[in-house]
Amino acid sequence: MASLISRTEVTLPDAPRVASLLIEHMQEHDVVCENRDGRTIADLGIGSGVIEVTPAALKVEITAPDLGSLELLRAFVADHVEEFCEGFRPTIAWRGHVAASDRIADFRELTLRSVVELTPKMRRLTFSGEDLARFDSREGLHVRMYFPPEGLAVPEWPRVGADGQIVWPPEERKPAVRYYTVRQVRPEAGEIDIDFVLHDDPGPGARFAAQARLGAVCGMAGPVGKMAPQSGWTLLAGDETALPAIARTLELMPAEARGAALIEVDGPGEEVRLKAPAGFEIRWLHRSAALAEASPLTGAVASVALPDGHEPYAWVACEYGTAKAIRSHLRSAWKLARDRHMVVGYWERASAA
């Protein structure tokens, strides 16, 4: 499939400074940037970018495989250029491939059709929607879920502005956005399964799942997020918020895959049946009520014996502070390069999703 390209040239009073801040911001988020003949080439994961700068203008060219990815990158550039202008509102106009509609290309409206209790604290919600084939992908684990405010008769969704930025409804009608893992997609039936953790102090997503009114409407866009590599020895580690992603990753692993999955839950009643390759060790970790602030994941990861002759890859998702400690261990003790691990804080102890 041919790539899609968009270009913009933004007139700025201090274009070199804005360009420098944009490139620095990308590098802080592990985007690989390379200088070639005075241009900066950025590998943006879902696409690529080329940045050129003159004393009076910033030129950006974006290439992506599909319209949804192109829109995300246009919004990224427009948002940060405006942010770094510090009070000056630039005029941003995109040329090249521009959609005819202001609807977000990868957005779908969903209707809740069924609910299954997986454990006392986890529910599987099945939604119906149109044109779901793009979400049945090995390239993206996660989706952005849009939950309308309670009591809103007709949901209102974000749209794409002329400058590429996302335009949201007024605050009182603005949907809350949370990231969730696609558990299974049945495009031919127009159905998608999402697993939700029920928190004691629920945010918008957990509240939607707890109420679970059949016929309720929400939104979805994506998919996003990288899967662990399908070869070599792999560590998967996380708490119940990462369990859907770990379960789906294990299901998609080839039969010969090897590694370990460490999963922290409240107790035996929160364990679920997992389909995994024979070479994967599954270890359930039960947190202690007496040590509610301490995660057993940190010690469990530290106790893993790495097999000889394999360069490991680690995928970890859990509470922010725990993720930070595990990331430090993987870099210092395991000596993992940045491209051999992904460690994400899904939530902070002071809040829940």
TrEMBL record:
InterPro entries per record: FAD-bd_FR_type, FNR_nucleotide-bd, Riboflavin_synthase-like_b-brl, SIP_FAD-bd, SIP_fam, SIP_rossman_dom, UCP028291
Q: Which Gene3D superfamilies match?
A: Alpha-D-phosphohexomutase, C-terminal domain (3.30.310.50), Nucleotide-binding domain of ferredoxin-NADP reductase (FNR) module (3.40.50.80), Translation factors (2.40.30.10)
Organism domain of life: Bacteria
Task: Output the Gene Ontology terms for molecular function.
Answer: oxidoreductase activity
Q: Name one Pfam family in it.
A: SIP
Domain FAD-binding FR-type intervals: 105-230
Family, similarity comment: Belongs to the SIP oxidoreductase family.
Protein known as: NADPH-dependent ferric siderophore reductase
Species in which this protein is naturally found: Hansschlegelia beijingensis
